[in-house]
Amino acid sequence: MNSNYSRFTQQELPAWQPILTPRWVITIFTLIALVFIPVGLAAFSASQRVVEVEYEYDTECIPDSYKDNATAYIKDDNTNKTCTQKLSIKSKMQAPIFVYYQLDNFYQNHRRYVKSRSDEQLRTKDKENDVSSCSPEDYVTINNKSEPIVPCGLIAWSLFNDTYKIQNKDKEVVINKTNIAWASDRTTKFGSDVYPKNFQASGLIGGAKLDPTKPLSEQEDLIVWMRTAALPKFRKLYGKIETDLEANDEIVVVIENNYNTYEFGGKKSLVLSTATWIGGRNNFLGIAYVVIGSMSLLLALGFLLLYILKPRPLGDPTYLSWNKNPGGLR
Amino acid sequence: MDQVENFPNFSSSMNNSSRNSTFGHSGSKPVSYGSKGADSGALSMSQKEISDEDARLVYVDDPERTNERFEFSGNSIRTSKYSIITFLPRNLFEQFHRVAYIYFLIIAILNQLPQLAVFGRGVSILPLAFVLFVTAVKDAFEDWRRHKSDKVENNRIASVMVDGQFQGKKWKDVKVGEIVKIAANETIPCDIVLLSTSDPTGVAYVQTTNLDGESNLKTRYAKQETQAKVPEKERFIGLIKCEKPNRNIYGFQGNMEVDGKRLSLGSSNIVLRGCELKNTNWAVGVAVYCGHETKAMLNNSGAPSKRSQLETHMNLEIIMLSVFLVALCSVTSVCAAIWLKSHKNELDLMPYYRKLDFSEGEMESYQYYGWGLEILFTFLKSVIVFQVMIPISLYISMELVRVGQAYFMIRDSRMYDAATNSRFQCRALNINEDLGQIKYVFSDKTGTLTENKMEFQCASIWGVDYSSTEASLEHGHQAECSAQVDGKVLKPKMKVKVNQKLLQLSKNSFRNVEGKQIYDFFLALAACNTIVPLVVDTSDPTVKLIDYQGESPDEQALAYAAAAYGFMLIERTSGHIVIDIHGKRQRFNVLGLHEFDSDRKRMSVILGYTDNSVKLFVKGADTSMLSVIDKSLNAEILRATETHLHSYSSLGLRTLVIGMWDLSVSEFDQWHFAFEAASTALLGRAALLRKVASNVENNLCILGATAIEDKLQKGVPESIESLRTAGIKVWVLTGDKQETAISIGYSSKLLTNSMTQIIINSNNRESCRRHLQNALVKSRQPLAASAVPNNFEGFSDAIGTPIALIIDGTSLVYILDSELEEELFELASRCSVVLCCRVAPLQKAGIVALVKKRTADMTLAIGDGANDVSMIQMADVGVGISGQEGRQAVMASDFAMGQFRFLVPLLFIHGHWNYQRLGYMIIYNFYRNAIIVLVLFWYVLFTAYTVTTAINEWSSMLYSIIYTAFPTIVVGILDKDLSKRILLKYPQLYGAGQRREAYNKKLFWVTMADTFWQSIVVFFVPLFAYWGSTVDISSIGDLWTLSVVILVNLHLAMDIIRWNWVIHAVIWGSIVATVICVMIIDAIPTFSGYWAIFNTAATGLFWLCLLGILIAALLPRFAVKYIYQYYYPSDIQISREAEKFANQRVIGGNRQIEMYPIPDGPPR
């Protein structure tokens, strides 16, 4: 029998047995409060330090004559799409300043849309016929021959094609459009030997065209666009300004308003924003942390008070139901 | 109450019966749950002649002719279920008997349709395939082991008659009709009818351990007519006509035509497959049933499967979850419909519809099916996405957890019986947790509460009481009772305490009447039995031990007692016995033997003396004996004996009465004629023999009575005390008589002096009703009077004085299956103890059914004998004691163990743990799957209701397989809420299971509310934090994946009570494994989420979100848990604290008191 006896088989392994004593609980809640309130305040102040200039131009960039028929304006190749606007910088923006385009009510996470891509094709030259998931943007008929589209699918097809130019004090501000996509995408995910082919060649043009002489790995706008946004309101990085913008600077943005969001009531904005460790401007996390921290503090104080007013000796057998009142509890 | 008055109808009918009248047994009573009813059924069966179409014809030594029509199965057996070819289809077919699996199969099939392909084709089958694969591997392994054992079994060699001589033949080739020869200690290959044996009288001894676990030898006989034939010399020609194969191992009906004579065959002529031949050099027989038609194989079906109560309740919650699922899917599809409707005109150019792009000819490849179908598809797609709401992994986890729990139950040294070297056995794997909710325990008495090791205690001979209590076990006395055979000393194997006075008297017998009676008394003990003496060698070559083998432990005890008083049975053959009486060897011819049966409740033997006188010795139960004893003879002695009997049985002893009669020549001839006729009769032989027996067993002269102690098993009173403290109602159901039952009740602390006893013995329906109603009134009184609660009684039904109900089988005949059942139940539920005596096996099941039908409370039946089988199968949990009475109870049981007292650790420790663990596990699994479904659902609301998943499809499939499966299984096996010590110290803690504290509706809804909150935190914290940012689907999906997985693991961690290294490893291990899996998935360049985790995890926002989610999600649960545990502590919680802090109190008392000041009085 002794050979069979082990602490394991007898379920007597040494074990740590935590019990929620008031001391532990109050300590834990106080600790949470002590961590969360400062972190929350730090996050909040970091978010507040972000300087952001947002300009929604979708309606303002439609000439008055087309106000009632924005779709016709945007679809007409012959209309002048250039649109200029002055923006004032409220406080100093330190380089790097990120230039985003922001779309709203655009479901890049729509099931039909998300699936309409071919990751194989984007990466490998030999897989250019791998377009089965891309319908309807899979093949295009050229000279009665069915040719695969590279990059295929609705996502690539609907590539954003508004362009921005920024002038400050009559000087062109350089928007650096390199290294705006993830390095991992540039080096691995998008092939350096895959070139755009038959792109936007069918009758219906969804967005930007691509330079067929540049491999996909260098088409950073496409790479950014292909990282489909999680939520219907999203920003995508357009470029980076590597010079500071001073407070009260009046900058002029020249927008080529090409992209058709009017069809489905989408909104477009241009956003200039600095960044801190928390990313862009978003007070939510800071506030949430402070709220959680304060709640913990309140709970800690409440439990402390309760404990002082109404303590219970732990593990006192007189509290066992059968020791208290046999008839009372049941 | 006087014994005889208890059964007035019985004794009166006996008084009226004359010597020639038919035995007025009580088979005519209206019985449904009575053994008597069952017996009379069997009687009519035996009276039927086997008609030709119901019979099996076996031509002896002519297998070709026997098997002409190929209707008899060969002797090869197959216990395995599958072959290599059939494994896949059959195993899958069996697995898909589970409704849940069909649900998941349908979903996997739906997902294969292109319109509904939510997940990749491979991915969607993964969970189901995993579950099926694990089960299939388990089944395949079990089947492989069966294949192996089948192969060994089939290839054993048997000696079979081929062309006039015996040749070795593989077992699997043995055919019906062949003649088989078995040597000593060989195993019998198939069911054979004995033709001849090495014993000149045709006796063969077999051991049936493999069949029913009984280790004693049983005698089987070859017919005298066939015994003389030698099959090697002349071909044996004969025809056996017997019944079709059936599973009754104690019955066989048939006849054999040899040389124009018809011989009847019974159960004593057949030897069954699996038995071993002992003490017999060889035996020759003809195979009648082979392979799967043998009785052993027909009995090989396992215990009937029972379903645990927890699982039944769980199914209700599963239905609830299905309703949730349908609700979520409906919300999604309704929203999708509204969205489509409101964007109807915009679909043309939308990047995700692009209707304009399609020329008219190609419309079919444009995947928009119109409003109605889109809604339907959305609904089906959401079912596919939200499928894990029904936790598929729960089923497989529960199975694994139960296997793990069973392992620890089996290995528990507390439930290891050193005496029989037997471990606890888990025969049913699906009702572990029911052990934690038992409210009623139905226990057999003999062999369960008691050891069933009989010890001879007292004898009353000729009206004088000789009790052996004051006797000593001195060495000198033992040496005297030995016999010399062939220069060797023979001693009985077991030593018996002897009464010196009686020993002296027995030595000086023959001198007076008293001595004569003592002589006859011990002769009866030594002769009137079916004991087979076995001579066993000892280390000392000159000393041999006699081992008395027999079917009844009472007989063994009596034979050993007779040996101790100098009447040593040395030899028994079918024709004679040899008894060594104080050193003189005497030989008696056994002229007739009437075996014991449950109607007569006695047995008798007719001995022919060397001087040609013939004597009848009878022994039997006192009620049946007193009715056949001639009361006019020796009335004084009869009265004295009755007084002794009464005092013996009130001591808890089992009593038997011994009687004898000198048969005159005419009486003997008359009997002999009837006996011969009956034993060769073809119709209803059993009934005829019984009639012959009861005719001759009449007007006996009383010799005396014996009292045998059935010793209580170790720890029985303490166990019963604990069970009762835990609020478990213990009912004892026994076949013994009332006095014995009550006295055992007292000695086992079942009955105490403070109890009010209500005794019901009635013999008709009306008096039953009256008794019950009176008793009910009586039982209500103390309830009203219990204004002052008794603090020292821990019974859950806290009534002033506990009531004990004692009821006998005769009354139960009228109560069960009638409208009185209701009243009995009401009465019984008010009693803390119920004792049923004189109950038949089927009545035991009836009583269990009575309780089971009327309450939702769990019942447990525990027993050791064949008579407990029906009760064990009826109860929610059946426990078999692997004891003396064979293995039938064990074979029918769900759990088997060596001792009654193991019930306490089984229920209080393992039952409690199993229940707490499994209850928690089910709730946790619901939570775990619901939270990820809700997170997926919230996201759907932000994707234009198109059921996109942000969480990678591989992650969502691996979620319930790898990410979160192992911790719940390990915690389900290993976590302990309380230590063994505390659980045994406070049996009341068992009440948690009875009150269903670990799994109930309230807990389910509270957990679901918590799940709702947690899912909101998990989803909306990242949503708001990343709203209007550059975040992509894969990155936020990875954040959701990791937060859900870490959250559910921390949630589990918070509820773990004991952290040992295994639990540490598995909890932290799964989190690490998840992170690794997510990283691997994100390292595949052809997935759209390539490198997402590495990019987002490099930002501070990711980590802030993760930390914020975990704390905010668990905060309410933590606070509520604390408030509940500290201010509304359950008994389990207090005991847990006591367990942890008790030691500290002792060591650092002052410090502890400072920290936890003990208030002056109770706070409430």
TrEMBL record, chain A:
UniProt entry keywords in alphabetical sequence: Membrane, Transmembrane, Transmembrane helix
Keyword Transmembrane among UniProt keywords: yes
Name the record gives this protein: ALA-interacting subunit
TM region positions: 24-44, 287-309
Family stated for the protein in its record: Belongs to the CDC50/LEM3 family.
One Pfam family, short name: CDC50
GO cellular component, one term: endoplasmic reticulum
Record carries keyword ATP-binding: no
From TrEMBL, chain B:
Keywords for this protein: ATP-binding, Magnesium, Membrane, Metal-binding, Nucleotide-binding, Translocase, Transmembrane, Transmembrane helix
Cofactor: Mg(2+)
Protein's UniProt name: Phospholipid-transporting ATPase
Family: Belongs to the cation transport ATPase (P-type) (TC 3.A.3) family. Type IV subfamily.
UniProt subcellular location: Endomembrane system; Membrane
Domain P-type ATPase A: 156-220
The organism of origin for this protein: Arachis duranensis (Wild peanut)
PROSITE patterns, A to Z: ATPASE_E1_E2
Gene that this polypeptide is encoded by: LOC107462806
